[in-house]
Amino acid sequence: MAANKAQRPHAADGQRTNPENPNPSPRTANRSFPKIIPVVFLMVILAVFVQSNLFIVKANEFIIVRQFGEIVKIIDAPGLKFKTPFVQTITRLPKYTLVYDVPPAEINTLDKKRIMVDYYSLWKITDPIQMIESLRTLSAAESRLGDIVYSSIRTELGKMNYVDIIKDRVTARGGIDTTVKGQVNDTLIKNESGIELIDIKMKRADLPAANEESVFLRMISERESTAQQYLSQGDAEALKIRAETDREVSEMLSRAEADAKTIQAEGEKEAARLYNDAYSKDPEFFNLYRTLTSYKTTINGETVLLLPINSPYLKYLTGE
Question: Which residues pair with 114 in a beta bridge?
Fold first, then answer.
């Protein structure tokens, strides 16, 4: 029995060191598990620590790095960056162009009409530090931009009549966008806002629904009155032009008739002179020529002449 008792622990030792049984006993696994927990815990803490302090900078954004609430640097180059743990924080701001669609607002025109103006603005951040220090947030920046744009548009449209505002953009309304853009950017630069207005576009400028019909009727009446005035002026001008034209035509005809009579008289005078010159040089030949010319005119086909036989007119016909 003593031998058997001595062999039991030996058998137990052989069982623990048996290479054919690789699985540890439950007692051994329980002793190694508490050692792994701290390692896993440290790895989790390290991963969280690294993840919370590493950040990615995109190509279309600014990164504002603050240290104890104070801005220490601006990062605008894309890539993977690291911030000091527990000390630094980051704020992301867009680098791309932003669209601010302003709610429609009422504006008074020069001719005392209230219109609803709907427009939108394209803007961007040019200096993140100035923008953060003066406006703090994007919503505050849009609100401030909207106030400045509205003030400028109200001033410019207040200098125009409603009919000029609703015309095509190439007419009186065409330069408003450029003017407002310049005024707004001047104000933003003066206030060191760190933002820039790229463009502004008016989507519509209409009358309020309450008085739209009455204003349109009044405008139609005014346009008809103006059109009638233009027609009357046109008729009067047409009569004036016709009278002036008739007078000029009459004067031209009178001058032409006078010139024609003068030319005719000069021609007759010259013809008489030529006849006289010809007659004085050879009266006999001149009489022959005149008589033959007369024959050609008077004797035609069945012409009958009743003349005395001794008439000088028959001299060349009878050969006597």
Answer: 108
Interval 34-91: pLDDT, tens: 668 777 777 877 776 666 677 888 889 998 888 888 888 888 888 888 887 778 888 8
Burial 150-163 (b: 16+ CB within 10 A, else e): bebbeebbeebebe
Torsions phi, psi for 254 (to 5 deg):
-65, -45
Residues 243-283: tens digit of each pLDDT = 999 999 999 999 999 999 999 999 988 888 887 777 777 77
Residue 306 lies in a domain: yes
Helices 283-298 and 212-281: crossing angle, nearest 10°? 130
* Amino acid at site 131: M
Helix (H) or strand (E) holding 266: helix 212-281
Q: Give the pairing of strands 70-75 and 79-82.
A: unpaired
Q: Which of 192, 210, 228 is the last residue of a domain?
A: 210
SS3 142: helix
Instruction: Let me know if residue 234 belongs to a domain.
Output: no
- In angstroms, rounded to a whole number, what is the distance separating the alpha carbons of residues 51 and 82? 10
Same domain assignment for residues 204 and 104: yes
Supply the mean pLDDT for the chain.
79
Distance CA 283, CA 101 (A): 111
Number of domains, the chain: 3
**In this predicted model, what pLDDT tens digit does every residue of 276-308 receive, in sequence order?**
777 777 777 777 777 777 777 777 767 777 777
Range of the domain at 61: 28-93
245 domain residue, yes or no: no
Tokens of 87: 């000390």
pTM attached to this predicted model: 0.52
* Sequence-separated (6 or more) residues with CB below 8 Å from residue 108: 114, 154, 158
Q: How far apart are the first and last CA of the chain?
A: 209
Structure tokens at 116: 């609803």
